[in-house]
């Protein structure tokens, strides 16, 4: 069970965001606020229709529930943005070690290359090539340099793949 001190510590976590991550969260916040306004308008319309009815419609209850969900998400994003710290980009020529915000290109033995950007977990999206610094791969990459090797382990079939950091 978390103590009050632990909860307070988590409330004031610093989020380190890339410029893209900051832009994405700001856009998401604007979308959620617009969605909330739309749902509140829907709720008012349903409430007016039911003013003469003696019972609450399930649609009204469902809309109120969705508004609460949107409110919680708005609050979460506002808290992240309030505690956000922008990661300053470093030019590739000056960047010696992989760190938060680094773009990393990996090459396997088969010659296939994949590029990732190392980000805070709040903006991680592996399908978009943005991996968390807390992920197993992210932790292996931190501090590495071009031409270093890492071992990517596949837990399911217990195979390991050697990858090399390239430009």
Describe this structure in words.
The radius of gyration is 22 Å and the shape is elongated. The chain is an alpha/beta fold and about 170 residues long. The chain has helices at about 5-10, 20-50, 60-80, 135-140, and strands at about 15, 85, 105-110, 115-120, 130, 150-155, 160-165.
End-to-end separation: 45 Å
Residue ranges: pLDDT <50 for 5 or more in a row?
none
The overall average pLDDT, rounded, is 83
From the alpha carbons, calculate the radius of gyration and give it in angstroms. 22 Å
Order of helices and strands: HEHHEEEEHEE
Structural class: alpha/beta
User: What general outline do the C-alpha atoms trace?
Assistant: elongated
Strand proportion, as a percent range, falls in 15-25%
List the total number of helices. Answer: 4
**Strand order across the largest sheet:** 5-4-3-7-6
Number of strands: 7
Instruction: Give the biggest sheet.
Output: 5 strands, mixed
Give the fraction of residues assigned to helices.
40-55%
Please write out the topology.
Elements lengths: L3 H8 L3 E3 L1 H31 L8 H25 L1 E3 L16 E6 L4 E7 L10 E3 L3 H6 L7 E6 L4 E8 L1
Parallel strand pairs: 1-2, 4-5
Antiparallel strand pairs: 3-4, 3-7, 6-7
List the main descriptive attributes of the protein structure presented here:
alpha/beta; two-stranded parallel ribbon; elongated
Short description:
Helix content is 42%, strand content 22%. It is an alpha/beta fold.
């Amino acid at each position: 069970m978390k103590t009050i001190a632990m909860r307070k510590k988590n409330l004031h976590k610093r989020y380190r965001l890339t410029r893209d991550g900051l832009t994405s969260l700001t856009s998401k916040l604007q979308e959620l606020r617009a969605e909330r306004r739309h749902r509140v308008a829907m709720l008012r319309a349903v409430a007016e229709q039911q003013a003469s009815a003696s019972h609450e419609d399930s649609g009204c209850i469902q809309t109120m529930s969705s508004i609460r969900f949107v409110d919680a998400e708005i609050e979460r994003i506002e808290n992240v943005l309030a505690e956000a710290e922008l990661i300053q980009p470093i030019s590739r020529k000056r960047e010696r070690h992989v760190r938060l915000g680094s773009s990393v290109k990996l090459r396997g033995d088969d010659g296939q290359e994949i590029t990732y950007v190392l980000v805070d977990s709040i903006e991680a999206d592996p399908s978009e090539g943005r991996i968390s610094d807390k992920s197993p791969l992210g932790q292996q990459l931190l501090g590495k340099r071009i031409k270093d090797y890492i071992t990517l382990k596949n837990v399911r079939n217990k195979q390991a793949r050697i990858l090399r950091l390239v430009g």
